[in-house]
Amino acid sequence: MPIGANDFARDWYSYDEVDGDFALEHFSIANDLETLVPFILNPDGSTVIVIQNDLVEPLPVRIRLGGTTVMPTLPADSFSTLVVKAPPGSGAR
Description:
It contains two helices and six strands. By secondary structure, the chain is α+β, with helices and mostly antiparallel strands. The strands form three sheets. The protein has a two-stranded antiparallel ribbon with strand order 1-6. It has a two-stranded antiparallel ribbon with strand order 2-5.
């Protein structure tokens, strides 16, 4: 799934079009919420997270998604894929 404007986007866009906005106060993913996110939602309600640890040692992290907290330790110099299941009764299909 492409992210950001590219050859497959319906129109040109960027995430922050304000010159000199180094603090990213005008950063927005509104376009992706409309055009991308609906196509990458998992039908079982789970969330997939890809995270990188570029350190030379393992990295413990804490990730909060709604009412769910996961605390994996990422291996050194790695990409990890985490799947967080939807809690029971959340209405996920």
